[in-house]
Amino acid sequence: MSQTGTYDGSFSRARGFSEALGPGFDLRLLRKGLVAASATVILLGIFREWFVAHYGVETVFQDMRHIALDAEMCLGAWYSATLMVLAAGLMSVIARLKARSGRGMVGYWVVLAIVFIGLSLDEETSVHELAIEPLRNQFHLTGVFYFAWVVPGLILVSLFALVYARFLRALPRPFGLMFFVCGGVYVAGALGMEMVAGVIGEHGIRYVVCFIIEEGLEIAGMTMFVLTLLSYLRHHFDGLAVRF
After folding, report:
1. pTM, 2 dp
2. What is the pLDDT of residues 90-131, one digit of tens each?
3. CB 167 within 8 A of CB 173
4. What is the CA radius of gyration of the chain?
5. Which pLDDT score is estimated for 144?
6. Chain-centre distance for alpha carbon 181
7. 81: Cβ–Cβ under 8 A, 6 or more apart, which residues?
């Protein structure tokens, strides 16, 4: 890259990506919209729990499960899966630009994008829950491991952290730190609060509070990650003309 900010072919592609958003498009609007959408999904889920607790399910709205946070095939699951696909798309763009500029670490970005596609599929289909009953019955798991899928989940997260430690260290420090924070927030919700729920049980107000915090942390972590990826694109491929 020259001091004027021009580059052989990679920046021309970056400018094309920016132009595809429309002339004069300001990604600050996307940032605000993403934060607002995430907050709306969480607040709708909280409202649903309050409404059902006060008025029950024998109303014209029934149980409003489609905006529940602790349900499958609902708004929260779809939105989380969408954030994961968006993150995977942004990481694919980063991988492509890095490959063209010869900056290295391309494989890490590609694998990370594939992992997030897998996570999005699991978010929609809940494949991980198939492991609960077999593992729980086989090893007589209770307490923090009552939702037994957290056991292989903890192992996979630990292995992933070890493999990607080099990747995080190679990133500029602010971005390496933000990636770590985003991952920590998401895992605290997906695994941490699931383990707490195993202790307190699946009924009562404590469980409701638990899964609201769980889903809220997951959505917050994914929202932060997408925003961090956009910021990374801005700082490292300035042909995108992303402004925050």
Report:
1. 0.85
2. 999 999 988 887 777 899 999 999 999 999 999 988 899 889
3. no
4. 20
5. 96
6. 12
7. 120, 121, 123, 124
